[in-house]
Amino acid sequence: MSTDDESFHPLGQEWEDELETMLDDTEYDSDLGMEMAKDAMRVTKGELSEADFHEKYHEDVMDEFGVDDRPTEEAYEEAKKNAGGFAEMLKSFDGDGDESRRDVMKKMGVGAAAVGLGAWGTAEGGQPNVADESGGHATEAHREGDTQWGMAIDLERCDGCLSCVQACASENNLDQGVNWMYVLDYEDGGADTSQNRLVRPCQHCTDAPCEKVCPTTARHTRDKDGLVLTDYDVCIGCRYCQVACPYGVNYFQWDEPDISTEEIAADPENDGEGDMMVDDRDRWVDSRSPRGTMSKCTMCPSRQDGLSGEDKVGTSACEDACPPDAIQFGNMRDEESDPQRYLDNPSRSRTLIQVGAESAIPEVAGLEEDLADADADLESVLEASQDLDEETLQLMKATEIVTENFGEGDADSVDYEQNIIEIFDVLEEHGLDLDSQEVLVGLDLADEPDEDEEFEGADELDAQNALEAFAGTPASNFRLLEDVGTNPNVAYLGNEPGPNAEQVEGPVAYEDTQYERSDGSEPNLVDNRKEEILDEGTVGDAGVSL
Amino acid sequence: MSTKTPSKADILRPIGTFSKKYLAVYSVAALGLIAFLIAWAYQLEKGLIVTGLGDWGTGGGATWGLYIGAFIWWVGVAHGGIILSASVRLLGMDRYMPVARIAEMTTIGGLSAAGFYILVHMGRPDRMVTSVLGHFHITVNNSPLVWDVTVITAYFVLSATYLGLTIRYDVNRLRDDLPDKFEPIYKIITFGYSEKEDEIIQRMVWWLAAAVIIMAPLLLHGGVIPWLFSLLPAMPAWTGGIQGPMFLSIALMSAISGVMIISYTFRRVYNWEHIITDDIFRGLLLWLGFFTLLFLWFQLQSVLNGAFLGPLNTQHAAEGKMAHPAYQVAMTMIFLTLVYIFLQAIRPALFSKTRALIASCAILAGTLTEKILFVVEGFFPPTFDIYTATPGTYFPSLIEILSLVGTVSLVALLFLNLAKLVPVVELHAIEHLTGDHGHEHDHEETTKTETEPEVKA
């Protein structure tokens, strides 16, 4: 779904316009209709209670129609007992065509709500989108719980360095060619291929086909956090999961793995309580799989269970290793998590990483020193400071303006916000009021008020524009193969590969990248496992293919 | 047409004789099986890396290959065999009664080979009991593979019961002529037998046959086995409702061919021209032609549906399939067989048992190729085909190829052993041939005379 589409309706602006025209054709108030439709959508997303929705428009509806035939609060209670509530009733009115929608309008005496209803039916039955899932209401009703680990991956920030592939292989002691994390460049027929790159971990689908087909329950979803894992003690190695997964993320252990379980357990770098293999349920689901069983990206259960230290909870090896922070790991059911914050406002998050990270932020001591003899106005401060220029300060301030509860929360990116707050503190202490008209107007983050007007403070739109001008907005926001119905928990920002996409060589070759394992060995990554590794073991390799 | 009269002695002949040829064939079959058992032991020792398989996607291989292809092929032979036998009993196709038991034994053999393939294919066969049975109550709701194991087991029980019940009748009546060294086995087979049960057994067999005929398209080779593939959305080469009829047609083709080859062998070795008559071969050949026609029709449907106007993933799959040389060879072979069968139907002079045998072999080779290709090709054009290593490469390793020798030997050994234990042609068939002999034979003779001039022409 495009991010610049401001429509409330899941089918977009065009659809919404059509609905509005339809309403214009009726004798009723279109504006009221559209307002109600918007709020009806909010009801479906769980942002507005059904009772509130009823109350909010009761008077308007009475004025306009003389009667409010909408399910009343009492009716709603009754309906909830019988059919699952107002929302269910709304859903049943999802019209098939214009005629039926008109009928619905008449029937309800308020066409407006029906517009929202149609909208809602589509949201419910259609593809899951980020907005749906952020609220925790959504299509994924199959698993309860507040936690669903997942990722937001900014493909436009990925530089193809393979650090994630390397870190994953190292953390999990993988054999060569077992690329749980995989990064690939592709051509898609277009002229500009610079942004065509895909980062492919396991999607940890809410409706995982691999789990559905497993004849043993070895492939399972962990109740507490939605991770899709393989119990290596149960797997029989039939490889049906690999066959059923549409993303090709599974890797079978065709022979004895290179690194023994003893070597993994004795890894000198593992200072956590766990052995990197058994999770907190005492099931062997982590690190490379033993011979004859299936493996794939686990999203690091040892970390999520706190067995690798509390500071690693909510992180993954690939996320930690990614230099441009293109991988955001976190709880997809928490609006305040890194991936959800990132998806909510990619330009803000991109900017935050670039101006708030330790590597980018001016040193506090240095800044204090620079400012020691400077005046307290914006120009003097910027002039005196060596590491802080006007653009950086503008972006820092813009980030703060568009962020609710700046610097608060558990997400990793909050550290960056705190780094910025530290800089702000230094500036405020020096005497520069960052919320003053002088500074905000000077940084183009507020409009100069007219003579008879009072200064209204920072302008969010200006701030957002500044962020977008600096970091850009992603080409699109998608999940892989959504129409297959797997409900993946990895959300992507950037170009979605089309059906004709073909892989091409990336900037860094797998063969040129080495990774370290528990036994001290440092093999190189392998792209084509079959040709380079597996064929060596084939008895009577004919060198030809069917 | 032989003028000999079928007798008990005829069907007892395999049990009573022991020749050098038998010993030679037995040794070859045993060697074939042992060779594969050794190869399998090596695979267990080294892991499945000894096969030509790999991970589809970035890994550049096919996850499943000959093992699964041969598995579904054997299941097909088995299912087709029992359908054939059930039709004989249910629809009163008495003409084929002499080969009914061969068809049932083929079913047992086919299912044994298929079951063996399940084990051979697994990464951890030692966990079959604990992992699969232990979670059966959960997985049976979802996993087509579990459905598969369930129906194959059910089928095995059904077929074995069916065969066992009909054998009781024979063994009891022929007991005096059967060798004493197998006494304990006969005792088990005829445990609690009384002549009163004959009628009941007949009815039970009829109901079992009815169950087989109804279950075959709905659940067995027209249902559960193709569902293993056709329900997966991401492999367009496998998807679609056509796979049900397709699998069933292949099953029947393979089974008829298999039964023809085995019947031909028995007839030749034990001089059963008067029991397994030319007429049976002609009839079976026509049925083979009919199912081959259905098969080619389904192939046409599946290929055309993708190739004409996509969608892209289905189109890639259809194009890949059509362009594959092995597919073209297999289809040509099957088509030419069909042409032959139709020609010999029009001109009976074109019929000979050797040609029927060649036709059967061609069909079996064609269906086996199609099956293996079907499995492997699923991985070549997956919907998510962005990886450079897709399509991957696959060619069966020597061990995989040896598994074919091993399972064919296994089935041969089963027949070689059973032939020494119980009659492979049931007593009912002989009774039928002799009992109604006068009338039936007259009728046949007239038909023959009528067609004679045309044959000569």
Automatic annotation (TrEMBL), chain A:
Alphabetical UniProt keywords: 4Fe-4S, Coiled coil, Electron transport, Iron, Iron-sulfur, Metal-binding, Repeat, Transport
One term of GO molecular function: oxidoreductase activity
Stretches assigned to coiled coil: 364-391
Signal peptide: none
Keyword Repeat on entry: yes
Domain 4Fe-4S ferredoxin-type: 149-179, 226-255
Xref: SUPFAM superfamilies: 4Fe-4S ferredoxins
CDD domains listed in its UniProt record: PsrB
Region annotation (Disordered) ranges: 124-143, 493-546
Superkingdom of origin: Archaea
Protein name, as recorded: 4Fe-4S ferredoxin
Organism per entry: Natrialba taiwanensis DSM 12281
Lineage: Archaea, Methanobacteriati, Methanobacteriota, Stenosarchaea group, Halobacteria
TrEMBL record, chain B:
Residue intervals passing through the bilayer: 21-44, 64-90, 102-120, 145-165, 205-229, 241-264, 284-304, 324-343, 355-374, 394-416
Xref: InterPro entries: NrfD-like
Alphabetically ordered keywords of this record: Cell membrane, Membrane, Transmembrane, Transmembrane helix
One Pfam family it belongs to: NrfD
Region (Disordered): 436-457
Topology of this chain in the membrane: Multi-pass membrane protein
GO cellular component: plasma membrane
Entry's localization field: Cell membrane
Keyword Cell membrane tagged: yes
Signal peptide segment: none
Domain of life, source organism: Archaea
Main localization (coarse): membrane
Protein family membership: Belongs to the NrfD family.
Name of protein: Polysulfide reductase NrfD
